[in-house]
Design brief:
Blueprint (H helix, E strand, L loop, with lengths): L4 E2 L5 H4 L2 E7 L2 E6 L4 E5 L8 E4 L4 E6 L3 E7 L1 H35 L8 H17 L1 H7 L2 H11 L4 H19 L1 H6 L7 H8 L4 E5 L6 H15 L7 E5 L2 H17 L8 E4 H11 L8 H4 L1 H18 L1 H9 L11 H5 L9 E2 L5 E2 L2 H12 L5 E2 L7 E3 L4 E6 L13 H18 L3 E5 H5 L3 H11 L9 H10 L2 H18 L4 H10 L5 H22 L4 H13 L9 E4 L7 H13 L4 E6 L14 H4 L1 H4 L4 E4 L2 E6 H11 L11 E4 L6 E5 L1 E2 L2 E2 L1 H15 L5 E5 L2 H11 L8 E5 L8 E9 L14 H6 L9 H11 L2 E9 L6 H8 L5 E2 L10
Parallel strand pairs: 8-18, 8-19, 9-10, 9-17, 15-16, 17-18, 20-21, 22-28, 22-29, 25-26, 25-27, 27-28
Antiparallel strand pairs: 1-2, 2-3, 3-4, 5-6, 6-7, 11-12, 13-14, 14-15, 23-24
The structure holds adenosine-5'-triphosphate (ATP).
The site of adenosine-5'-triphosphate has 18 residues, from helix 9 and strand 20.
EC number: 5.6.2.4
Organism: Pseudoalteromonas espejiana
InterPro entries: DNA_helicase_UvrD-like_C, DNA_helicase_UvrD/REP, P-loop_NTPase, UvrD-like_ATP-bd
Length: about 850
C-alpha cells in the first residue's frame, strides 16, 4: 500500500505546527515542524476517525480514550488518509469485536455473569456497543455483517445494568433448557422454577431468601450436585456451612442419597459447622488445638466464673464494692420514675436489697444495701411517709425525691409534696423521733453515700463494714450471686460473638443509657481478661478463638482456602464473628462464589449473636448480590401460610413475600383452644384431649407439642405418660423446633408476664446492650418464634391459650380477624 501523506493546507501552513501526517507501522504519525513526531497506535482507536471538511482545509478527529483533533490538513490528502485509516481501524475494531465475543462467552455465556466481571465487560464489550451506536453507518460499511449484528443486539440494551440483566436472563433460560431433565430428577421431586434459578445463579454473592418449608435444603443439595455434575467443580471445592452438627449430618446423608440416585459416584463436599471449619483450617496448618472443656460443658464455665467472682469478692474490697453497686443496672434517669409515682407495687419491684427487702426504687436500694453492708439493722416499709426505720436507735430515715430547689420529680405537684414533707417533719418533731433525710439530688450529685454516712454519724449510729466474707455469704444465700453470674456469662458470650473491643464495650453500654457504664465496662473487661487467662492456663481455646485463629491463619497465608463455592445455611442467624470469618475466606480465597440461604422470618437466635440485619440489609452489610426468593412452600397449606405469613409481616423490617402453597384447603387450619378443663385451668389435660382427637382421625400422624419454655413441656409430658397413644409425639421448644416438622402441632404457653409468650421479660439491660442491635418492632423475635412454631405443622396447628388472661399474640389474632378457627366461646372478642 502506497504511503499516504497529508500535508497542512495552504492556510494551515500559517496556523499549525504540523509538518505532515502519515500512517506508519499501524500508527498514525504526526510529524511536527520542529522535527519531533507523535504516534497514535491504531489499536488504541475506539471508533472510526471523523473527517470534517471546511472551505479551505479538513480536520480529522481521532477517537481513542480521548479525542484528538488534527486540523488544517489539505482537503484531498486528508480524505485519502482518512480512507486508509478507516480500513485499518476497521480491522482493529473487528479484532476487538471478536475479542468481545470471546469475553462475553467466557464471562456471561458459559457461566453466570458475576458482578466482579462486569467491569471487564464494560471496558471491552459494552463500550464497543456504545461506540457502534455513535457511528453505525461507518461500522456497517466497514465491519463484517455478523459482527455488526452482534453489536446491534448488544446495543439493544439501553444501559449496562439492562445489558447485564439481559445476559443473565439469557444464561438462565439456556441453563433451564439444557438441564431441565437434571432438575427434574436431582431431588425427590422436580425442582420448582425458583429453586432452579437459585441453583443456576452463581454471582459472587447470592442470597436465597426462603420461607419455611420452601426447600432450602433441596436447593443446597441440588446446587452442589449441579456444580459437580456440570461445571467441573470438584466436591472438595465446595463448602457447605450448617448451623449445627445435626443439620450438617442431615445434609451429608441427603447429599449422598441424592448423588447415588443421580448415578454420580462422587464424594460429598465439605459439609461442616463453623466450629468444625475452624478446626479443619487450624489442622491444615498443622495446629492441633485443645478445645476448652467450657465449650462442651457450660456448667463448668459457670462453676469457674462463680469461683473466680467469689474469690475476687472475698479478697478484693474494691471489687466487692463495685460488684454490689452493679448488681442492678439503672437504665437512664427515667427508669426510676415509678418510685416517685408510687405506681409500681412492691411485689413487682425488680430491686432486692441485700437485707432482703424488695425496695421501691433504685436509690432506696442503694440506701438499704449501704445500711446492710455497714451492719446497721433496718426495717423497710413502703409508704408515703417513711422508708426506713433503725430499731436499735429508734431513728427514721426518709429519702425524698426532690431537687435542690425542692421540686419533686416527675410531675408530682410541688405544693402537696412540700406539704407532706413539712407534715412529716412536724410529726417527728412532736414525737421527738429523730428523722434522717436524704434527697434525690444527693444521688444526682454522686453524694448519697456521703450524706448518709454524715447523717448517721450525727445520730451516733455505729457503722462498721461487715467484711467481704459476709458479703459473699449474703450474695450466695439470696441467690444474687447465681443470678449475676448468669448475667455476666451472657455478657461474656455476647462480647465473644460480637468480638467487642474494650472501647466498643464502653460505647455499647453507654449508648444503651445504662448508668455507671464505665464501671460495667471495666467489670466486664476484667471478667473477659480472666476468662482468656483461664483458657491460657488450660492451654486451650474456645470456639470463638478457633474462628479468630483460623481467620488469622488464612490472612497470613498459613492456611489456604481451597473452595470455589461457599454455601451458608440458616444465614438469618449469622453472628458478626462468623460473618467476619466468612469475609476473610472470601477475600483470601481464589474467586469464591458465596451463597447465603436463609429466611428472615425465622431469625430466632439473637441471644447467641444472630444478627438479622446481615439478611435484611444484605446489600449494605454483605455486598451487591443476586437475590432469589423461594416462595412456594411444600410443608403446609394455604390456611397456615396465610396466618403465619400475615402475622410475621406485621413487622415492617421483615421482607415482604408472597407465599404460595402446594396444598390448598377451604377451612381454617389454625385452631384456637382454651386451656380450661372442667372449669379450671389445665393445659396438660387440653393437650391430651387434642392428641386424642388427632389420634381418632389418624393414629399414625406425627404430633409435636411446642412451647416457649422447656419446663412447660415437662409438665405436659408427665401428664401424658400414663396414657400413651400410638402416634409419635414430640416435645419441642420453639427454638428447638427449627428445621423440624410434624403432621400436627400443639403450641402451648400463651401466657402473660415474664415467662409468657410473648415474654414481657425484655431481657437484661446489660446483655441487651451487648447483643446485636434489634429492630424496633415490639416482640419482633418472639413474633418470629410463633411463625416458626405454626409453620412446623403440615396439616393443623392448635394454639392452646388462657382465655381470661390472653397473651397479646392471641388477642391480636382474635381482634385483627385472622382467619383462625376459634374453638371456644371463652375468647370473646370485645365489641368493635
Ligand atoms: N420442588 C419440590 N417439590 C415437592 N416437594 C418439595 C420440593 N422442594 C422441597 N420439597 C419438600 O418440602 C419439604 C420442606 O423442604 P425443606 O426441609 O428443605 O424446607 P426448608 O426450607 O429447609 O424448611 P424450614 O425452613 O421450615 O426448615 C421437604 O419435605 C421437601 O422434600
Amino acid at each position: 500500500m502506497a504511503q499516504i501523506i497529508a500535508n497542512p493546507s495552504w492556510l494551515g501552513r500559517f496556523f499549525t505546527r504540523i509538518k505532515y501526517v502519515t500512517i506508519e507501522q499501524a500508527s498514525l504519525v504526526v510529524y511536527f515542524k520542529n522535527k519531533t513526531s507523535y504516534s497514535y497506535p491504531i489499536g488504541e482507536f475506539t471508533n472510526f476517525p471523523q473527517l470534517k471538511k471546511a472551505l479551505f482545509s479538513s480536520k480529522i478527529t481521532l477517537i481513542t480514550n480521548k479525542s484528538t483533533v488534527i486540523s488544517f490538513l489539505n482537503k484531498q490528502q486528508a480524505t485519502s488518509l482518512n480512507d486508509q485509516l478507516n480500513v485499518l481501524v476497521a480491522s482493529s475494531l473487528e479484532q476487538k469485536v471478536n475479542k468481545a465475543k470471546t469475553l462475553l462467552k467466557q464471562y456471561a455465556t458459559s457461566e453466570y455473569l458475576r458482578d466482579s466481571n462486569i467491569p471487564i465487560l464494560s471496558k471491552s464489550v459494552f463500550s464497543l456497543a456504545q461506540q457502534f451506536s455513535s457511528a453505525p453507518a461507518l461500522w456497517q460499511q466497514y465491519l463484517s455483517p455478523v459482527n455488526v449484528k452482534f453489536l446491534t443486539i448488544l446495543n439493544s440494551a439501553a444501559t449496562t445494568e439492562l445489558a447485564v440483566a439481559e445476559l443473565r436472563q439469557q444464561y438462565e433460560q439456556k441453563q433451564l433448557a439444557i438441564k431441565g431433565d437434571f432438575y427434574n430428577k436431582v431431588e425427590s421431586n422436580p425442582l420448582t422454577l425458583e429453586q432452579r434459578l437459585s441453583v443456576i445463579r452463581d454471582n459472587d454473592k447470592n442470597l436465597v431468601l426462603a420461607a419455611a418449608g420452601t426447600g432450602k435444603t433441596s436447593v443446597m443439595i441440588a446446587k452442589s450436585l449441579d456444580l459437580i455434575a456440570h461445571n467441573t467443580v470438584k466436591p472438595k471445592q465446595i463448602l457447605i456451612l450448617a448451623y449445627n452438627k445435626n443439620a450438617a449430618n442431615e445434609l451429608k446423608a441427603r447429599f449422598e442419597q441424592r448423588a447415588k440416585h443421580a448415578g454420580l459416584n462422587i464424594q460429598a463436599p465439605s459439609i461442616l459447622t463453623f466450629h468444625a471449619l475452624g478446626l479443619k483450617l487450624l489442622q491444615s496448618a498443622e495446629q492441633s488445638p485443645v478445645v476448652s472443656k467450657f465449650t462442651t460443658n457450660p456448667m463448668l464455665l459457670n462453676q469457674w466464673l462463680t469461683q473466680w467472682v467469689s474469690n475476687k469478692i472475698k479478697s478484693d474490697p474494691a471489687f466487692c464494692k463495685t460488684y454490689i453497686d452493679l448488681l442492678y443496672e439503672l437504665k437512664n434517669i427515667v427508669s426510676h420514675k415509678p418510685e416517685s409515682h408510687h405506681t409500681q407495687t412492691i411485689k413487682n419491684s425488680q430491686y432486692q436489697s441485700l437485707a432482703g427487702y424488695k425496695v421501691q426504687g433504685y436509690q432506696q436500694l442503694l440506701i438499704s444495701n449501704w445500711l446492710y453492708l455497714y451492719g446497721i439493722d433496718h426495717n423497710y416499709t413502703q409508704g408515703e411517709s417513711t422508708d426506713f426505720y433503725l430499731p436499735k436507735y429508734n431513728i427514721y430515715l426518709v429519702h425524698f425525691n426532690i431537687d435542690r430547689q425542692g421540686n419533686p420529680l416527675f410531675g408530682i405537684k410541688k405544693a402537696s409534696y412540700s406539704e407532706q414533707i413539712k407534715h412529716l417533719r412536724k410529726q417527728h418533731k412532736q414525737n421527738n423521733t429523730p428523722l434522717i433525710e436524704t434527697f434525690d439530688y444527693n444521688w444526682q450529685e454522686g453524694k448519697l453515700e456521703q450524706r448518709l454516712k454524715a447523717q448517721l454519724q450525727k445520730h451516733k449510729v455505729v457503722a462498721n463494714f461487715i467484711g467481704e466474707q459476709k458479703v459473699y455469704e449474703r450474695l450466695t444465700s439470696t441467690g444474687q450471686l447465681k443470678q449475676s453470674i448468669e448475667k455476666y456469662l451472657s455478657c461474656l458470650s455476647a462480647i465473644r460473638v460480637e468480638q467487642l473491643s474494650a472501647s466498643q464495650l464502653v460505647e455499647r453500654i453507654k449508648q444503651s443509657g445504662i448508668k455507671n457504664h464505665k464501671n460495667y465496662a471495666t467489670l466486664l473487661s476484667t471478667i473477659h481478661s480472666a476468662y482468656t487467662q483461664e483458657l491460657n492456663t488450660q492451654g486451650a481455646i474456645d470456639f470463638d478463638d478457633m474462628i479468630i485463629k483460623a481467620a488469622n491463619l488464612v490472612k497470613t497465608g498459613k492456611a489456604v482456602v481451597p473452595w470455589s463455592h461457599i454455601l451458608v445455611d440458616e444465614f438469618q442467624d449469622i453472628s458478626r464473628a462468623r460473618m467476619a470469618f466468612l469475609n476473610t475466606l472470601i477475600k483470601y480465597g481464589d474467586n469464591i462464589r458465596f451463597t447465603a440461604v436463609g429466611d428472615d422470618w425465622q431469625a430466632i437466635y439473637r441471644f447467641s449473636g444472630g444478627k438479622l440485619a446481615f439478611t435484611t440489609r444484605f446489600n449494605n452489610l454483605v455486598g451487591s448480590h443476586t437475590l432469589t426468593m423461594l416462595q412456594k412452600t411444600f410443608r403446609y397449606n394455604n390456611s397456615i401460610s396465610e396466618i403465619a405469613g400475615r402475622f410475621v409481616m406485621q413487622n415492617p423490617e421483615q421482607y415482604k413475600k408472597q407465599i404460595t402453597t402446594h396444598t390448598q384447603v377451604q377451612s381454617p387450619q389454625v385452631i384456637l383452644l382454651d386451656d380450661i378443663h372442667q372449669g379450671s385451668k389445665s393445659v396438660a389435660e387440653k393437650v391430651q384431649q387434642t392428641i386424642a382427637t388427632i389420634n381418632k382421625n389418624n393414629s399414625a400422624a406425627s404430633i409435636a407439642v411446642i412451647a416457649r419454655y422447656r419446663f412447660l413441656l415437662n409438665g405436659v409430658q408427665k401428664h401424658l405418660e400414663p396414657k400413651p397413644v400410638s402416634n409419635p409425639v414430640h416435645f419441642w421448644t420453639l427454638h428447638g423446633s427449627k428445621g423440624l416438622e410434624a403432621d400436627y402441632c400443639i403450641i402451648i404457653g400463651f401466657e402473660q408476664g415474664k415467662l409468657g409468650f410473648p415474654g414481657e421479660h425484655q431481657g437484661n439491660n446489660l446483655v441487651e446492650a451487648l447483643l446485636p442491635v434489634q429492630d424496633k418492632y415490639p416482640h419482633s423475635e418472639e413474633r418470629r418464634l410463633l411463625y416458626v412454631g405454626i409453620t412446623r405443622a403440615k396439616h393443623k396447628a392448635y394454639l392452646i391459650a388462657d382465655p381470661h388472661a390472653c397473651s397479646t399474640f392471641i388477642s391480636e389474632l382474635i381482634n385483627d380477624n385472622y382467619p383462625i378457627h376459634i374453638a371456644s366461646k371463652l375468647f370473646n372478642k370485645p365489641p368493635s
